[in-house]
Input
Amino acid sequence: MSKKVYIETQGCQMNEYDSSRMADLLGDSHGMVRTFNPEEADVLLMNTCSIREKAQEKVFSGLGRWRKLKAKRPELIIGVGGCVASQEGDSIRKRAPYVDMIFGPQTLHRLPQMLEQRKTNKIAVVDVSFPDIEKFDFLPEPKVEGHKAYISIMEGCSKYCSFCVVPYTRGEEVSRPFDDVIAEIAHLASQGVREVTLLGQNVNGYRGPHHDGSICSFAELLKHVADIDGIGRIRYTTSHPLEFGDDLIAAYTDIPKLASHVHLPVQSGSDVVLAAMKRNHTAADYLARIHKLKAARPDILISSDFIIGFPNESDDDFMATMNLIAEVDYDHSFSFIFSKRPGTPAAELTDSIDEETKKQRLLILKERIKQNTLRKTSDMIGTTQRVLVEKVSDREAGYVVGSAENTRLVFFPADASLVGRFADVVISAVANVNAVRGNQVVWVEPAV
Ligand code: SAM
Ligand code: F3S
Output
């Protein structure tokens, strides 16, 4: 019987991508199949996130649960990967000596060898080095289920925002070669993928080498992805405002397959805070980009990340953020209170703002953006939306469910023959707000 691997993924979509590649890798090397039940697994892998303190705390509580499984089955192998592994290395074993393998985001391709080493030598294996972009040369072709897929096109980040651990845990920016990215997407499309999300911590900083040594920009890459047979919709995340140049804005005029929904994090609307965060742009610079983007694609919806309570954020700074939110009219946000990350410059700053004030500000901001989300969903009523049909609905007989360009789920009456295809539907009602996967649900009644 095939051995089983259970992978717990914490954090960002890049980790989701890495986890599915770990499963592909162990499937190829050891014939392992992925299970979603840790009780029946032979190998347990935790793909960790260290972006905020809370995320990091999850690692040891999760490992504590796995320790009990290992006490019952000593042959169970436990591995820790991702950004916490990269940052902590072998010291993870000081708190959790039962961990067998520790690997970073850039060494996950060595998992099969690490597994063998662990079995042969019976000692823990630690490899959290940064062997450049070697990892992609050793990963098998991705296997997909469904019609949407993520593709990692670059790794790491060289922006060094003062609050962020990513440049230390994932290393500096490295782009995958152009040919490799295109080949991977063509392979996915041949397996039925219709929507791709290009991934990178600073994805629009992509500078992929062509085989002749010339460099492909992110905007050029988008054109080539749009030309791949079968690909009908393109998304990407996460982009940085500094690299959101005119060529990328022009892509929104030239490439209809680019989804009218972009995640462009600003973090704060205050120039004082932006400078302290080392974002290297002002709120006005950001707004100028947004206005150009809206001119190129008038129906575009924009989302952002915000950090509330950056050290010494004043009432005026917070008001500046709220004013920017009003001006941009965001559709959605991922917003968190600043978390001190060891080793980052911002962790050294003293702070005069109390926790209660920060919590209040976060609530105000979230409520404001939630109102926008609701309004923008209601505004869809009566409009025609292009929906990628993902599956037959298990909630309503005779219905299918798919996603609109703005990420809302859409239900409408149709049969399974539409799965994997795009359909233009008129939206008749909005229902079950926030009920499914955090997205709002949009409903198309049979009569329409
Ligand atoms: N490339 C993106 C950009 O242009 O900002 C950022 C990607 S970062 C991995 C994801 C998000 O995590 C950031 O946008 C930020 O809001 C959040 N984040 C990072 N460090 C944080 C910290 N120390 N405290 C709170 N949130 C943090
Ligand atoms: Fe982090 Fe700033 Fe890069 S938020 S991932 S250092 S753009």
User: Anything to note?
Assistant: The pocket of S-adenosylmethionine (ligand 1) is lined by residues 51-52, 163-164, 166, 201-202, 238, 240, 265, 267, 305, 307, 336, 338-339, 341 (CB under 6 Å). The chain has a mean pLDDT of 92. The chain has 13 helices and 22 strands.
